[in-house]
Amino acid sequence: MAIKIDGKMISTQVKDECKKRVKKEALDVTLAVIQVGNDPASTVYVGNKKKACEYIGIHSLSYELPEETTEEELLELVEKLNQDKNVHGILVQLPLPAHIDEDKVIQTISPKKDVDGFHPQSVGALSIGQPGFVSCTPAGIIQLLKRSGVEMDGKECVIVGRSNIVGKPMALLMLRENATVTVCHSHTANLKEVTKRADILIVAIGKPKFITKEYVKKGAVVIDVGIHRNENNKLCGDVDFDDVEPVCSAITPVPGGVGPMTIAMLMNNCVEAKGIQEA
Ligand code: GUN
Predict the structure, then answer these.
(1) Does residue 49 have an active-site annotation?
(2) Protein residue with least CA distance to atom 11, ligand 1
(3) Is 116's C-beta closer than 6 angstroms to any atom of ligand 1?
(4) Percent of the chain scored above 70 by pLDDT?
(5) In this structure, are residues 159 and 198 in contact, taking their beta carbons and an 8 Å threshold?
(6) Which of the residues 93, 113, 155, 238 is marked catalytic?
(7) What is the mean pLDDT of residues 240-263?
(8) If you measure from the C-alpha of residue 135 to the centroid of ligand 1, how many angstroms do you get, rounded to a whole number?
(9) Dihedral angle sign, alpha carbons of residues 39, 90, 58, 271
């Protein structure tokens, strides 16, 4: 039987550490959260982020803008928040409506307030081992592995998915931990052969239950970043949990695996942002 890596429990540990620090150092931290339009999934995510702020003792400022908001108006708001000394983190929930250039918005956020870690300066810093904010989902996966006692040094790590938010920063973080890293994607030949080499397999491809036991080496650690609703409206991941669980040594469930870690790391980044701006 594989160990089920408990993301809910580990995310609570991380959040409690943030909460303690905020209290001990009497930190007055504010996160500005911007949502444009009312994509239902985004509304749930934004709601969860605001709840986490409340739990930790971080103030959250909520900007719920209509779908018709222009790019110029959004950029103006971001610039205003960049200048505001009382705001320490800025989060623009993605995806944005099609008429707004996401890259332009991300590049407008001050790197000092880039708690999502999406700004090119943050990504560049990560790639050359300099300090900067790290994208929350991959940073959360590193915490899940460390706090579950999974050794990364010298291990074969295969990442399925090459997105800017998960796959690419995940590869950089795994390199930092001295793993041997392979990144696979939709053009990878013989995917099963590659994923079968993994001691640690991280799956972020956005296809429900795509990874079955044929993709997994016996005893591997499997991390599932996907989240979908199946035909019965139940949540499932990119990994077919029931099929893979018997062959691996540890696995993250969906829900309750990677998901809660993303928010915990966002909270951690907000507390760090305050520290950087005070320094
Ligand atoms: N949309 C889906 N995940 C994220 C995230 O981590 N940050 C932001 N800003 N938008 C998202």
Answers:
(1) yes
(2) 94
(3) yes
(4) 100
(5) no
(6) 93
(7) 98
(8) 9
(9) positive
